[in-house]
Design a protein that fits this description.
Elements: E1 2-4, H1 7-16, E2 21-26, H2 32-44, E3 47-52, H3 72-81, E4 86-88, H4 107-110, H5 114-117, H6 121-136, E5 140-144, H7 148-160, E6 166-170, H8 190-211, H9 217-228, E7 232-240, E8 254-262, E9 265-272
Parallel strand pairs: 1-4, 2-3, 2-5, 3-4, 5-6
Antiparallel strand pairs: 7-8, 8-9
Length: 273
């Protein structure tokens, strides 16, 4: 496996390995959730590239850009063991310029949920992904369903910009206790990890209600909020797959999302119905 530091090195690698490239964009601190994306990428493509770039443009002032978990040695070990052909780990100066066009995510998709709490976040996501998509020339890009809003916005970007690539959604990976895997889980102590289970428990409650025939979004949200107590809840939302709020569950077209603070750590989770 090669570790690439510069855009030029990545371009040269792609030129030497032009066929059937798969790509997994990450911010490093790789865990089993990332590993599931990487395994699928390696299995489905001749060449697999993983990026581990912590992208500054998607962090707001006061967020955890400086303290975001980093472990490049372990990232490289995981990638090599899983059969990745190249890991791209650049500095920000390799990707960003003092003068460059900016990208704005569609307001109807990006101003709600995560975008309401983190305005401009998805602009930064699209800005870096546009660069990475062009540099890797990937035909398939693997993204997790845990970041549901991001997945839908990136799909829209690919479709509306006529990009010749496929976004491959991958299922949420959970610890044995149900906690959705996240690099930010590293911030949690043992007691907070137990508190964090309230997110997945609230979604399990929603799933059980739906299985019992309950379709009222209001009723389901009320039960979820009770389950989440006493966490500081940012939102509980029930939306269709265009991120429009809905009053009744629509089978195969609904996402139930939750965001809450456990201590100072903000966590998200969701359920695709």
């Amino acid at each position: 496996m090669q570790i690439l530091r510069t855009a030029e090195q990545l371009r040269d690698f792609v030129a030497a390995n032009p066929e059937n490239i798969g790509f997994v964009p990450t911010m490093g601190a790789l865990h089993d959730g990332h590993a599931s994306l990487i395994k699928k990428c390696v299995a489905q493509n001749k060449t697999a590239i993983v990026s581990t770039f912590v992208n500054p443009t998607q962090f707001l002032a006061g967020e955890d850009f400086e303290s975001y978990p980093k472990n490049e040695q372990n990232d490289a070990k995981i990638c090599e063991e899983l059969g990745v052909h190249a890991m791209f780990a650049p500095e920000a100066r390799e990707l960003y310029f003092d003068t460059e066009p900016l990208i704005s995510a569609p307001e109807n998709l990006a101003s709600v949920l995560e975008g309401k709490t983190r305005p401009g976040h998805f602009d930064g996501v699209l800005r870096v992904l546009n660069k990475l998509f062009n540099l890797t020339n990937a035909k398939r890009v693997y993204m997790g369903k845990k970041d549901a809003q991001q997945l839908l916005i990136v799909r829209n970007f690919v479709k509306t910009c006529f990009l010749n690539l496929e976004i491959v959604p991958c299922e949420i990976v959970r610890a044995r206790d149900g906690l959705a895997l996240s690099s930010r889980n590293a911030y949690l102590d043992e007691g907070q990890k137990l508190e964090a289970l309230k997110l997945s428990h609230s979604l399990k409650k929603a799933s059980n209600l739906i299985a019992a025939g309950e379709l009222s979004a209001q009723t389901i949200k009320g039960e979820m909020l009770q389950t989440l107590e006493p966490l500081n809840v940012d939102y509980v939302a029930i939306v269709d797959r265009n991120l429009n709020e809905i009053s009744l569950i629509e089978p195969d077209n609904t996402i139930i999302l939750v965001a809450a603070y456990v201590g100072k750590t903000r966590l998200i989770d969701n359920l695709w119905v």
